[in-house]
Amino acid sequence: MKEEPLEPGSASGADRKSQQPSFIRRRSFLQGLGVSSAMLLPTTLLADRDDRRKKLPRGDVAILRFLAAAELIESDLWEQYNELGGVKGGNAAYQLALENLDSDMPQYIADNTDDERSHAAFLNAYLESRGDQPVNLDAFRMLPSSQATGAKQKGRLTNLMNLNVDTSWYTRYRSEENPDFGATFPQAVHIVGEPAIPVDDADTPPGMMQPPVPVTHQQRRMQAIANTAGFHFAFIEQGGSSLYTIMSLKVTSLEVLRIVVSIGGTEVNHFAVWHDKAGNAVNVTDPETGVTFPDLNAPPFGGEEFQTNLIFPEPCDFLKGEKLPPCSVIRPSLDQNGGAVATIKAFTEGGLFLGQSGGFFAAAMELANAADAAHRERFDED
Ligand SMILES: [Fe+2]
Ligand SMILES: [Fe+2]
User: Are 301 and 232 contacting, i.e. CB atoms less than 8 angstroms apart?
Assistant: First the structure.
């Protein structure tokens, strides 16, 4: 019997056999047992192709497509952090400044980057497997790279060199109030117009010593940049924690729900770690911008609102109901405060898309509006 041809350019001999897709290997084995090709074909098709499955509801596709876009955006920003400050990153002074928050920071940056890449790749592959369009944002990779040693020179989706980091997540998770009931929360640190990665080697030399207590102009500048990254990491991941929670409430298919809650859980995991690390930001003022990182444990800070080790979500107002007690939960969990459109708006206000084209915002908002409009339907799984 004739074996199916392999992909062009595939290896030969033993290598070739080990690289064969599993259904081809299984087929050869069964053929050896005398099972005919006519009997095999339907089985292999059913086992290896998804095109006989029912089409996903439109709302689920919209949710998955927006989440794929969000993950491509996350991957882009995490890759920039990883090139400079990850465990294999290329900027020693930035790595040392990050390590002043926690010696594991470079490893965590590398691993967070891997996670985001896997989220983007999985969501797009799943969409394709169900016969739906994946998301590609390559046309919008137009923003400049850092000129600092370690950064690759290529187009980016996101800007990390001039950020307004909203740090109200810090006081929100220490509060007994909930933004879904209209509560607002003060900033922990006022981070305005600050880079989160070194911009170039001029005021942040990549090979300089970075002591735990920065002394020189250059050392203070680099530490303020690393501190900004620490707060930005948690800002991004708390956004993901609310976004996935909110999207899960709109999903129809159980399999898509499994995807959304399972990826969402890792966003919460990321947030929890970065929340802890941000509290270790070194007390310093950026000599270039004046952005000051105070000691959050000392007066006028400290207490329930600022104490750095109060990182577990405080029980807060959750659902309306006179007899319902406070509950420790992800918040916000309402569309208007943390849904798809709210996420794009929050990222935009923080400067993450500074310099992006009108086409980018139009595409992002179209995906976001479609995701927010999704709602649970009746659906029989196949
Ligand atoms: Fe992610
Ligand atoms: Fe994330």
Answer: no
Quote the ligand 1 centre to 115 CA distance (angstroms).
6
The whole-angstrom separation of Cα 224 and Cα 288 is 10
Cα distances (Å, whole numbers) of residue 67 to 11, 180, 246, 251, 258: 37, 22, 12, 12, 14
Q: pTM of the full predicted structure?
A: 0.86
- C-alpha span between 39 and 135 (Å, rounded): 38
Task: Give the ligand at the shortest distance from the Cα of 120.
Answer: 1
If pLDDT is split at 50, 70 and 90, which confidence band does 50 have?
low
- Over residues 286-329, the pLDDT tens digits come to 999 999 999 999 999 999 999 999 999 999 999 987 789 999 99
Name, in order, each residue with C-beta under 8 angstroms of 225's C-beta and a sequence gap of 6 or more: 94, 97, 194, 195, 196, 197, 198, 204, 286
| 83 pLDDT higher than 70 | yes
Place of tokens 């898509």: 256
Please state the rounded mean pLDDT for residues 212-219: 97
| Ligand 1 centroid from CA 352, angstroms | 16
Mean pLDDT of 249-263: 98
Q: Which of 150-154, 214-218, 317-321 has the lowest mean pLDDT?
A: 317-321
Helix, strand, coil share (%) of the chain residues, nearest 5: 50, 5, 45
Measure Cα distances from 317 to 76, 235, 247, 322 in Å.
Answer: 35, 22, 21, 11
The number of CA neighbours under 13 Å toward the Cβ of 144 is 9
Question: Do strands 284-285 and 191-194 pair parallel, antiparallel, or not at all (unpaired)?
Answer: unpaired
Instruction: State in Å: Cα 71 to ligand 2 middle.
Output: 7
Token readout for 145 is: 């790279």
| Ligand nearest, relative to CA of residue 263 | 1
Q: Where are the domains of the chain?
A: 18-50, 57-373
* Ligand at shortest distance from the CA of 268: 2
355 Cα: distance to centroid of ligand 2 (angstroms): 23
Ligand with an atom nearest the CA of residue 69: 1
Distance of CA 267 from the midpoint of ligand 1 (Å)? 6
Residue count (the chain): 382
